[in-house]
Amino acid sequence: MKRFLLIGVALLVLVLVFVFQRFSYAEFLNSMLPSNFQLLDSNTKFIINKTVRLVINDSACMVLIFAWFKERKYLTISFYLFMVELFILLPVYFFIKISLEGDSEISSPLLSQVHRLIVNPLLMFILIIAFFYQKVIVNKRV
């Protein structure tokens, strides 16, 4: 029962992040800060919003992986992928996106695909499919 509850919560979080993708985490943070310490820079708001969204999406995917597979090695691999996304891929995306197009939500076709890969939980979903393939298909042959 706990397993299905965790899977349900993780899926619900992923759906809510998608439905409320226009929600501004930076504006929410701004409203909690004193007026003399406001984050008014649009690039900063863009970076905060995308980073928070990545962290929420990938954390929900890691909960999903933990609940579904119940194997620590899968969670460890997921965590390392999350760290690569957060500390390598996301900053490179921000640098390219902001230097070429600014903080607009509309991207060129190439950057739009990179955005989907990094900010959306696409890499984690690919990882879940790989884990499923390994657990069901490969282990069945052994």
Order of helices and strands: HHHHHH
| Number of discrete domains | 1
Compute the number of strand runs.
0
The percent range for strand residues is under 5%
Oligomeric state: single chain
Number of helices: 6
> What separation lies between the terminal Cα atoms?
30 Å
Mean pLDDT: 86
| Category from helices, strands and their pairing | mainly alpha
What this model shows, in words?
The protein has helices at 2-19, 25-32, 42-69, 72-101, 109-118, 122-141. The longest helix is centred in the middle third of the chain and has 30 residues, at 72-101. The chain is mainly alpha-helical and 142 residues long. 80% of the residues lie in helices and 0% in strands. The chain has one domain. The two termini are 30 Å apart.
Please specify the SSE layout and strand pairing:
Blueprint: H1 2-19, H2 25-32, H3 42-69, H4 72-101, H5 109-118, H6 122-141
Question: Which descriptors apply to this entry?
Answer:
142 residues; mainly alpha; 6 helices; 80% helix; 0% strand
Brief synopsis:
The protein has one domain (2-141).
